[in-house]
User: Fold this.
Amino acid sequence: MKRKGLTWRATILVAIGVLTAALAACGSSSTPSSTSSSPATSKMEQILGHAPTGLAAQILQRNQIVVTNDPNYPPQSYVTKSGTLIGFDVDVAKKVAELLGVPVKFVHPNWDAVPGGLKVGRWDVCIESMTRTTERMKTLDFAEPYYYTQGQLMVRQGTPLLTTVDSLKGKKIGVGVATTYQQFLKAVGGVKIMTYDTDANTFPALILGRLDGVMTADLTASQAIAGGKPFQLSGQPFYYEPLCFSIRKGETDLLALLNYTVKTMREDGSLTTMSKKWYHGFDVTHPPASGVPEFEAAVAALKGQ
Assistant:
């Protein structure tokens, strides 16, 4: 399944075996006593230099941070046969909660419902591999990137490779709804875009030949192939993208706290450790040195054609 011309990361990741990880139970809520002298209060005040306000104060008051998560997006996050939620994004969210001194509660809304739910306060933060884009920044605020993926096309084994923008035109390509992959294909033009609730739900249709290809993260594509799906990577990635925590606009204190957690996880090495745990020893917390453009530059180039 290795093909000449793939990026170093995509090629090696195809060979990933079944990933194993220490299972940890999902976070649960607890009843707060007093936030005036709690360890979490002390931590947040020390980070901010003042008492938390806005949504950060609400998180303290309820003693819980509510994080959105996609339970069907391996290896970023998925549910084991025993019902345990695991994955890179899961570990990252738990570490964020630990650094802030509060328990984490995971919720699993549909991807296209996440931005609206953030804006009205149904959940506090999205930690499920959301790309920071100019359009999304109109309604959401983003912390600094915590890792990077690439937009990768994959096809069923034995079918023609789709390696150029022109080769995508007229083809049925499956994507997760409201994703950057959908936006990219729309900018390509002439692609028959088939949307699904989440990226992994495109896989059965690709296996059955109802799709000509699927576009998803390189890491997700490689994980699917490593897990035995009859797919192959189709050429080099079309772009890379920065993945960030996202929250509703105007929550200055919460944004500062989240940026602190990203900075701390980078400096203490825990972010790299989690990356290597889930991505077969590779550190994907830095932009790939593959020469592919960033997502918005790739889209802009298409629109300028």
About this structure: Residues 1-8, 10-35 have pLDDT under 50 and may be disordered. Residues 39-146+245-280 form a domain with the D-Maltodextrin-Binding Protein; domain 2 fold (CATH 3.40.190.10).
